[in-house]
Give the backbone structure.
Amino acid sequence: MTQLLSTGPADSDRVLVLAHGAGAPMDSPWMNDVATLLGDRGIRVVRFEFAYMAARRDGTRRPNPRAEAVLDEYRAVVAQLRDETDATPAIGGKSFGGRVASMVADELYATDGIRGLVCLGYPFHPMGKPEQLRTAHLAELATPTLVCQGERDIMGSRDEVAGYALSPAIRIEWAPDGDHDLKPRKASGHTLAGNLAAAADAVAGFVG
């Protein structure tokens, strides 16, 4: 059984399963900030770690796996949560975690196992390799989806994403001048706090 970390009102029927990015754990400062913002908006955020990341807490260094290798882990967490609550969750994650969630979303949505998908900084392509798109499944995605993306995201900027064939089920909320963590440059006049709060507002409205 996977250890789950919950933030926000325990009795909320608005639940979001949120997986971490490839290189940071479920309780990284960024993940903590987002979970707190969503909890303040009435969302119960349930976080977990893929096995490779959990092993690092014990000093076992494992390489980042391919997304396809951890799909069953995500499925198992959703099943575990459904056994513990009557609420139908939305699923998603930061970067890698959101990509994994997007790869299991339609099969879970088709059986009423989830209510939607939330991706925070989706890695539309590997860093520095814009020709290697990770969008084939996104063109046919049926699950209602919200992507919160920085306009300058190095793995999918606003200009790049404009040229992708994406399903009409996908809505993108752009963080002004944001990078992969939604962080803007100081000269832009925007702030990370402001971008994260706007993203949390969008997610809370979407999950609700």
About this structure: The chain has a mean pLDDT of 96. The domain at 5-207 is CATH 3.40.50.1820 (Rossmann fold). Strands lie at 5-7, 15-19, 44-48, 90-94, 116-120, 145-150, 170-175.
